[in-house]
Specification:
By secondary structure, this protein is α+β, with helices and mostly antiparallel strands. It has helices spanning about 1-25, 40-45, 60-70, 70-90, 145-215, 220-255, 280-290, 290-315, 360-430, 435-470, and strands at about 95-115, 120-145, 320-330, 345-355. The protein is elongated and about 155 Å long.
Length: about 475
Amino acid sequence: MKCCASFALLSAIVASSSLAQATLLDVFRTRADAPATPASSLIGTSACPHVHVDVPFELGDVILRAICAHPRARQTWSAARGRASAVDSARSAYLPSINATAGIQHDTVSTRYDYSAYGLGSVDRSETTSAMQGSLDLSWLLFDFGQRGASVRQTRALLAAANADHDETLQTIFFDAARAFYAVRDAQAAARVAMLTEDVAREILAIAHAKHQAGAGALIDQLQAQTTYRRAVLDRVAAEGNARTTTGLLAVAMGLDANVPVRIAETKAMPSERANDAGVDSLIDEAKARRPKLVAARAMLDAARADIDAARAQGRPTISLVGKRILNSSLHGKRSDDTPVSRRSSSVIGLQLTIPLFEGLNSGYRVAHMLARADEREADLHNTELQVSAEVWKSYHELQADSTNLTNSRALVEDAHRSLDISRGRYKEGVGTFTELLNAQTALSDAEKQRVLAVSKWRISRIRLAASLGNLKLWSSD
């Protein structure tokens, strides 16, 4: 019974070893190859800090909250951790496998001896034997022409691709959150411009009304001013509604309900309007070196090439170390010669050569399939390089144009303000016409809108160029 208990204990230990490695141990130290949390590869900390909702949000707060709350980040992070476990599984093929079996057998043999021919009748005899048996099997693959090595390279390449895909996802979330933040800022700026336009229209209406009452102005001037004022009110209401809409969308981007009252910090002074000094050629080279999308494409190509080596190795011989220990113990019973049997054991150890002779041409087809997959991945890599190059080129020149227009829009607003001041003074003095005043007012309103649009496009162009480079920290937040 002691022998039976020993085998049972050994079986339990071997059966639980894989679970212990999966839940408690990191034997091959691959956990560090995947991010500790869904956001740690971007924010650099192991956990997302708490963000207070009752205070105005800076751009960094919005991005942090969006990254920590977005389900897509958790999805790609989980995929990366799964790939890390696949690396462990591939590397475990270098370790031996040990299997233990144990059992108890109870045999009863009944025999009837017929002596009726001798006048003695029949005799029944029954023989019962009980035995316990156990075995321990060892198998250790020693040489396989690189199949395990190719499998490890393939899983590590897929892990690198998963990490790169996670980084690309984080940068996409970063960009979308920043765009939602700037959409709120732009909508609020547009609402302020609409309010300013309404104030100017109200002032002009008061001037036209006063001149008409004094008999110095025509009724048509007052009616035109009143029409312009009503239009300004409509524009202001629409702008305020759009500001509320973008605020709700920003809350959703941060993982909050749309009805949560989110506020953003006041607009800071505009940073330098100077465009990026680096040449577009160097920026394209930078993007090709660090863009997560390209890193993932290169890793997938490496994995496909490793698959080719693994497929070729599957059709080659393998050498394994095999061993077996068998133990049989009789609990009670005797042999036919009345010799008691207590224990029988045997041991086997040796080298085993396995040569695949014929497998229905599967090996050749498998290699051909992997070669085609590698060609596909290589073409995908080249296509991704072209896409990244186009994105950087487009973002770079858009930023150049938007930086120039940012300066032009400021000058446009300044000129429109001076024109309105002059037209207002001329109309009050009776020198200028009301049409001239309305044109100046319309020009100012349009200039303010162009300024809001120019600032918005410049901000988005900066962050889009950073995203195309795979580096969204290219400029400080504003």
